[in-house]
């Protein structure tokens, strides 16, 4: 096990290059199963969730070859199994995308439910609703979800809630179904559009991704292709906040500025300057941080995955900020760690009231999950003195070489070995 040791208090200055989007990659890799051929996927982030996805593909019979650190060739001509090994699927919540992809290609799939009672906390009822509409049946047995459908038939699904995962899984299962599928009240995140573009590149007929309604005309077969994954909106947003919170000046490269608009708008309101270029943004501070009200919402609203980073930033603003979490029931668990650093934050259900303080104090910290872990890194970068962050395996599920990229901006951060600890459940 490793931890980060951060000597905070230095402004970050320089340039950083953003990696491919985790939440696109973890859907596009399973989608290669639908090709029944050879795909070359570029701009894959070097993170543990991608490695687990590649291992699952291999376990199912796909041939996986690394062409360079961010490019893999995946040949899914022969798929020899439809059951994702439990030990792999439990490491990653997004293993549920193998349900949709295997169902679409093979008419059946089995994937372990990540973390036992997650149907309660992070339900997948909307994924199952879409599979059922296409004619599949499902059952949960021995902690595994089984879906069976044979030849699926296109159908109409109106989602009860806007869900990224259910939208993507429905798309995966419907592209080879017979006839037309209409998905309404769908998610519109950039990774939804990226998955649609990839499916279309393989010969699918998916229209409307990025709007509330997606229409899919089933095709008889797909083929392999080469595809480059979009840049990671949340990694970019995290570096934007890092620049603002340390009073630095950072050029964030390999991004799509349009995807960052909800984040740029709030950062500007909070007192940072955001200059847009074609494929980059520069972020720096123009004065003191000012308090904000934010509510997280599905895209194009403010992304829930940036909520912990904004809480850290606003804990140093002059005045009272209010953050309302509009997506997840329990996404303020990290606030206790910030309070131990001297932040003044009260949480009541899904609302956090933040009274800005002049500075944060360094402290020993534990990353409770991926995005909260990244937020604690930002807090430690802002706090003058040495903080240590344990459980960084959570952070490394979603951020490629975070320490190295921060070092490139002048941060004093080291990744050091600690005593062994159990592998945590996937978020
Ligand atoms: C994706 O999770 C992301 N993960 C999450 O990012 C992100 O926080 C979330 O979308 C929202 O943007 C991946 O893409 C791998 P949802 P997902 O289905 O798809 C409810 C990160 O840090 N819901 O859009 O699982 C659900 O409880 C991760 O990178 C149902 O009720 O999220 C939640 O309240 C963390 N029934 C809301 O919808 C369902 O069947 C949105 O969840 C599905 C979801």
Features:
23 strands; 427 residues; 14 helices; four-stranded mixed beta sheet; binds ligand EPZ; alpha+beta
What do you see in this structure?
The protein has helices at 22-31, 48-59, 86-89, 97-106, 118-121, 125-133, 164-174, 190-201, 233-245, 257-269, 307-314, 335-340, 370-382, 402-407, and strands at residues 2-8, 13-17, 38-42, 63-68, 71-75, 108-112, 137-141, 144-148, 156-158, 180-184, 205-207, 213-217, 226-228, 249-253, 272-276, 280-285, 293-295, 320-324, 344-348, 351-355, 364-366, 385-390, 412-417. It is α+β, with helices and mostly antiparallel strands and 427 residues long. The strands form 6 sheets. Strands 21-22-1-23 form a 4-stranded mixed sheet. The longest helix is centred in the middle third of the chain and has 13 residues, at 233-245. 52% of the residues are buried. Mean pLDDT is 95; it is low at 115-120. Ligand EPZ binds next to helix 1, helix 6, helix 7 and helix 13.
Q: In which order are the strands of the major sheet placed? A: 21-22-1-23
Give the helix/strand class.
alpha+beta
Rg computed from alpha carbons, rounded to a whole number of angstroms: 21 Å
Ligands, ions, cofactors: ligand EPZ
Calculate the mean pLDDT score and round it: 95
What percent strand? 25-35%
Helix content: 25-40%
User: Could you say which overall geometry the principal axes of the C-alpha atoms support?
Assistant: globular
Question: Biggest sheet, in brief?
Answer: 4 strands, mixed
Low-confidence stretches: 115-120
Tally the helices: 14
DSSP E strands, number: 23
Question: What distance lies between the first and last C-alpha atoms, to the nearest angstrom?
Answer: 18 Å
């Amino acid at each position: 096990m490793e931890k980060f040791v951060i000597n905070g208090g230095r402004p970050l200055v320089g340039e950083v290059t953003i990696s491919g989007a985790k939440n696109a990659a973890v859907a596009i890799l399973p989608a290669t199963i639908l090709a029944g051929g050879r795909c070359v996927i570029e701009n894959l982030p070097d993170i543990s969730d991608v490695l687990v996805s590649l291992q699952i593909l291999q376990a199912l019979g796909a041939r996986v070859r690394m062409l360079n650190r961010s490019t893999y060739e995946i040949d899914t001509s022969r798929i020899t199994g439809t059951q994702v090994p439990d030990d792999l699927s439990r490491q990653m919540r997004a293993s549920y995308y193998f349900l949709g992809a295997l169902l679409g290609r093979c008419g059946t799939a089995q994937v372990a439910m990540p973390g036992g009672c997650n149907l309660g906390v992070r339900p997948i009822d909307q994924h199952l609703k879409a599979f059922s509409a296409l004619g599949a049946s499902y059952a949960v047995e021995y902690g595994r979800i089984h879906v069976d459908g044979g030849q699926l038939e296109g159908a109409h699904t109106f989602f009860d809630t806007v869900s990224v995962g259910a939208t993507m899984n429905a798309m995966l299962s419907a592209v080879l179904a017979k006839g037309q599928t209409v998905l309404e009240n769908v998610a519109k995140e950039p990774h939804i559009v990226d998955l649609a573009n990839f499916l279309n590149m393989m010969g699918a007929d998916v229209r409307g991704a990025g709007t509330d309604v997606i229409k899919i005309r089933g095709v008889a077969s797909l083929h392999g292709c080469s595809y480059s994954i979009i840049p990671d909106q949340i990694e970019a947003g995290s570096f934007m906040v890092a620049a603002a919170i340390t009073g630095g000046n950072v050029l964030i490269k390999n991004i799509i500025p349009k995807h960052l608009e909800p984040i740029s708008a709030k950062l500007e309101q909070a007192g940072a300057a955001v200059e847009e270029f074609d494929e980059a943004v520069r972020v720096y501070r123009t004065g003191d941080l000012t308090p904000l009200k934010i509510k997280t919402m599905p895209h194009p609203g403010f992304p829930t995955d940036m909520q912990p980073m904004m809480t850290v930033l606003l804990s140093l603003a002059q005045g009272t900020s209010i953050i309302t979490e509009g997506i997840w029931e329990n996404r303020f668990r990290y606030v206790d760690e910030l309070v131990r650093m001297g932040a003044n934050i009260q949480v009541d259900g899904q609302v956090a009231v933040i009274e800005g303080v002049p500075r944060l104090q360094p402290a020993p910290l534990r990353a409770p999950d991926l995005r909260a872990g990244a937020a604690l890194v930002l807090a430690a970068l802002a706090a003058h003195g040495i903080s240590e962050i344990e459980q960084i395996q959570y952070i490394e599920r979603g951020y490629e070489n975070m320490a190295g990229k921060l070092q490139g901006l002048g941060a004093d951060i080291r990744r050091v070995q600690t005593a062994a600890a159990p592998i945590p459940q996937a978020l």
